[in-house]
């Protein structure tokens, strides 16, 4: 174990929806089987906003948000076999236990005993973060990939990759509609276009629609209009695959209602029960034999496929990062998440 500070700077909130302030907190200790990572980059994701708003029952106050991170291993807990201090790493936001039935079947993203930095314990909007089960969850970041870009792989880019490729099973030539073009939606646009799909991006913000075009969307639709008929008109009857990348009653309904018969809806954006549950048009689901699928992050063992495509230049998360911030600027950015197109990443702590 290396020597580290007793106190570290972190972004803290003491009440849900209350002030977000940077202050000194006790340095995290590496758990058995886990590590402490010195955070080099931490993305600001909509789920951090949900945690701050009190939508996640796992969050206990006071709390440090942040789950989309990359950095270097600073300290090892007992029983870590595969990692050394100084290793450059990222981690899926679902930290799996490695021992339950889901983990045994390779589905670590739905682990029964998962922890999540920034939700079940303090997260990465801080100089250091503790992570569980390092041998199950850490992902080595190749030298040629910078850590701010690698941070995006901890949540939104990897989540989009699994949603498009593994869960949506998008094929070349298929029509894919992406509803909501924040970080995960824009990632999905790029990944689906790279897979040879014809992508329609939907968002209410002109800046987000322009970025979606730049990332490979063939058509864009203003999300404040009547979206499903517009999707049907462009695609000759509806999309083959459609993602709700925002997580809202409207985007969820638009996604399902814009599908052709036997189409696949993938729910990616969080829909916390605290915000009210959306109505799913089950008459349409049965009448058209639609598939309604959930997608929740991506397990660490699936990262080599994604990293290989990035190394080969087939995918490039870099253009998605539109702002780098200091920790002192992170609270304001978290409070207004979604107002700026693209991804904001904290790179100075
Ligand atoms: Zn996230
Ligand atoms: Zn497990």
Topology:
Blueprint: E1 7-13, E2 20-26, E3 35-44, H1 46-53, E4 68-76, E5 88-90, H2 101-104, E6 128-131, H3 134-137, E7 139-140, H4 147-152, H5 156-167, E8 175-179, H6 183-194, E9 198-203, H7 206-214, E10 219-222, H8 227-235, E11 239-244, H9 249-257, E12 259-267, H10 282-287, E13 291-294, H11 303-311, E14 321-326, H12 327-335, E15 343-348
Parallel strand pairs: 8-9, 8-11, 9-10, 11-12, 12-13, 14-15
Antiparallel strand pairs: 1-2, 3-4, 3-6, 3-15, 4-5, 5-7
The structure holds zinc ion (2 copies).
The site of one zinc ion (ZN) has 7 residues, from loops.
Overview of this protein structure:
The protein is an alpha/beta fold and 349 residues long. Helices cover 28% and strands 25% of the residues. It has helices at 46-53, 101-104, 134-137, 147-152, 156-167, 183-194, 206-214, 227-235, 249-257, 282-287, 303-311, 327-335, and strands at residues 7-13, 20-26, 35-44, 68-76, 88-90, 128-131, 139-140, 175-179, 198-203, 219-222, 239-244, 259-267, 291-294, 321-326, 343-348. Helix 10 links the parallel strand 12 (259-267) and strand 13 (291-294). The longest helix is centred in the middle third of the chain and has 12 residues, at 156-167. It is globular, with a radius of gyration of 20 Å. It starts with 6 loop residues before the first strand and ends with a strand. The mean pLDDT is 96. Bound molecules: zinc ion (2 copies).
């Amino acid at each position: 174990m290396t020597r580290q500070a007793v106190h570290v700077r972190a972004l803290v909130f003491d009440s849900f929806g209350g002030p977000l302030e940077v202050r000194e907190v006790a340095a995290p200790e590496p758990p058995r089987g886990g590590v402490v990572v010195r955070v080099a980059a931490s993305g600001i994701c909509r789920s951090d906003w949900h945690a701050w708003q009190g939508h996640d029952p796992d969050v206990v106050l006071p709390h440090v948000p942040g789950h989309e991170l990359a950095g270097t291993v600073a300290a090892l807990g007992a029983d870590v076999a595969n990692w050394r201090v100084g290793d450059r790493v990222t981690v899926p936001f679902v930290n799996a236990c490695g021992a339950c039935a889901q983990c045994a079947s390779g589905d670590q993203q739905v682990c029964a005993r998962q922890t999540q930095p920034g939700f079940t314990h303090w997260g990465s909007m801080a100089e250091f973060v503790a992570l569980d089960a390092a041998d199950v969850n850490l992902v080595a970041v190749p030298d040629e990939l910078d850590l701010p870009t690698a941070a995006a792989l901890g949540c939104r880019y990897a989540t989009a990759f699994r949603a498009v490729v593994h869960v949506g099973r998008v094929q070349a030539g298929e029509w894919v509609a992406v509803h909501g073009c924040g970080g995960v939606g824009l990632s999905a646009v790029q990944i689906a276009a790279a897979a040879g799909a014809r992508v329609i991006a939907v968002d209410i913000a002109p800046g987000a629609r322009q970025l979606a075009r730049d990332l490979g969307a063939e058509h864009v639709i203003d999300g404040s209009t009547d979206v499903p008929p517009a999707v049907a008109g462009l695609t000759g009857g509806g999309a083959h695959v459609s993602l709700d990348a925002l997580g809202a009653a409207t985007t969820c309904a638009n996604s399902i209602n814009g599908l052709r018969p036997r189409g696949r809806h993938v729910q990616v954006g969080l829909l916390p029960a605290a915000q009210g549950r959306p109505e799913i048009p089950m008459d349409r689901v049965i009448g058209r034999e639609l598939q309604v699928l959930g997608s929740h992050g991506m397990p660490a063992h699936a990262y080599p496929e994604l990293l290989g495509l990035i190394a080969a230049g087939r995918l490039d998360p870099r253009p998605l990062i539109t702002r780098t911030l200091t920790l002192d600027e992170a609270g304001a950015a978290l409070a207004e998440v979604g107002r700026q197109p693209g991804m904001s990443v904290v790179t100075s702590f």
